[in-house]
Amino acid sequence: MNKLTLGYTLIEMLVTVSIVAILAAVAVPSYDGLINNNKQKSALNTFLGELHYARSEAVKRSRQVVVCPSSDASSCSGTNWNTGWIIFIDDDRDDTRDNDEELIRIAGALEQGLALSTTNDISDFIRYRPNGLAMETGTFTLCDPRGSDLAKAIIINATGRPQISEHNATGDALTCS
Prior knowledge:
Layout: H1 10-61, E1 65-69, E2 85-89, E3 103-107, E4 115-118, E5 126-128, E6 138-143, E7 152-156, E8 162-165
């Protein structure tokens, strides 16, 4: 009767560990790309949804709606869209939120590593008229650490319709600063 010994030799174990290490070295960079793509798509789709929401609220309520960057979640603050934004009904059409004007949506800061930049004409705010037309047009560019080659844009045209693009409004390549 032969005794069967169970176990692995040192060489078998080293070969197995080597194969696992090689597979991990190949998979990790792909996984990082997948994570970055998902972060970017999530932020892009969230912001696109906010713009569609603001436009539809302007039409639904027959009032001017403003989307602007906000660091305090209650008033417009400069041109830094990375800190978050608010959407409000601009009853007096002065492009700033007064305490009596309804705040209809608040968004927090973008995830770390993402940056949202704009063209000058939409750096402070976007106003939607009661008919859904935008009073400003321009391009939002969303960048991540991978740079300009993988940046995405949201273009707002004269009809107010925001759309995702891989180029700016003039068809040129996107740039990240």
